[in-house]
Amino acid sequence: MGMMHFRDKLPLTWCLVMQLSCILHQTSSVDWPEEQSRKESLSPVDPDSKMIPEEQLRKEIPHTSDGGLASLDTNKCKPNTPFIWCLPQDYNQEKHPFTYFHLVNKSLPWDYAFRFVIEEISNINDKSQTMSISMYFAVSWLEPRLKINESATEWSEARTGPANEVNESPEILKYIWYPELEIYGLDTFGRQRVLKEMSGVRIIKNKTITYELGVRITISCRMNFDDYPLDAHTCQFQVGSYYDTHETVTCSSFFIYDLDRQRSLQHFIQIESLPSEFKVMELPSGIYAACGFQVRLQRKQMQFLVQVYLPSFMFVIVSWVSFLIKPEVVPGRMALLVTLFLVLINIFNSVRENAPISSRLNAIDLYLVVCIFLVFGALMEYAVILLLLKKRRKPMRTIDQGLRHLFAASNGAAAVPLRDTNTREENSAGEEKQVEVVNSVPSNGVGKKTMLVTYANNKAVITEAVQNAQHEQRQLTGEGYYTGQISKPPDVGLSVRKQALVDNIDAWAMWISPPMFIFWNICYWIAYRPWTNKLLSDNTLLDYVVQRSP
Question: What is the pTM of this model?
């Protein structure tokens, strides 16, 4: 029974299994939405397809004449395809064109042609000794392997460039050979960009390739600032082959420069062809050909003349006024000289801070040092005069004489010191000195009363004389005083000899300083010749400025 029951159910179970298998098979044949979308994206019919079937890819790849597959590079020559120019199928980008010079019946050395369209000299940095140039840099070379279709209409159409030239994208440089160049003394090399790099390639009908790009180049420039700010410099822009010596590669160049587009800098600028001595670069690795141009620079001097030279010149002249001031006016004369001295020191420090580094004392430093020295000399001259005037600061009397003078003055009499400590220089030899004191009319009303005091060996001989009257003479010791009614003696200053010496010092300084300063200026300006145009030796700087003025 049990066995028969199992056999009755077996067909039913088998049918269920078969139905489930059919359902799974149908489900596997149905695409889900994501899978359907993926298949559509890979469809060759879809224009946005990311995958191209192999059959279609083989049809689009160009074939060579022997039936093989050609390169996907569209610059390679293709059979039965019109072209303006193309590269042969065996073109090797790593091989130099001069290895195929037999194709154009040309021998070595190979030639590079440079063209420089200079926009401006954008910056000249004295501290780093560099010069920045904004220009269009172009280099041309012959490529004998190019295939040229001389019958193509593009050579005569203006839409593809000038006659016998066609413009191409710089991307073709990925597939053709181009020279390795070196700019001597290069500091920075920047390509100009707007939306993309400002560059282009031109293919010329004679198989010449020209690559041009807008650049901003900074090069080092050997400058000598010993004549600063009356200095002039020459800077060379040199470019040549990096690998090939002058036996293999030579070069030629020309430049275009519009001075009207040049912005104002601190130098006058003149650009000229590269001198012959700079067209060859001798390096340890060999001798290389170089091309480029030379820039002459001459600093504009007006601001230095007005801001430094003229004030310094005037300050030295003002210092001569001190020679006309009386030596006794110490505050006024000293304040004038010290102020001028400090102002010149301040100008010197300011100039040194902004001046470039020089191997020795430059021109403007030398001028300021001489001006400072002249003012310092006037200050030292006054110091000598003050040293001579120092004795006037000694007391008129000793303490004992001062007390006796007070006691005598309290009795209503004018006392005369027996020792003149202010004006007399005593020595062991007993130098004599006389002081004449003049009084008013004597008591008897006859004649004029005078008193003569003679000092000798610490003794005083007082002689009282009345004109037209009898003379009376008395001799007193060094401790005695004459108590007659006499006038107060005047203050006695320098001796006549020293007073004349002081006056002569000021007079000599007043006569020597101006000629010496004028002679120095003549020698200075003749030596540096700022009026000479060092850009053009046959003209003056004034001629150059007039020529460039509108």
Answer: 0.65
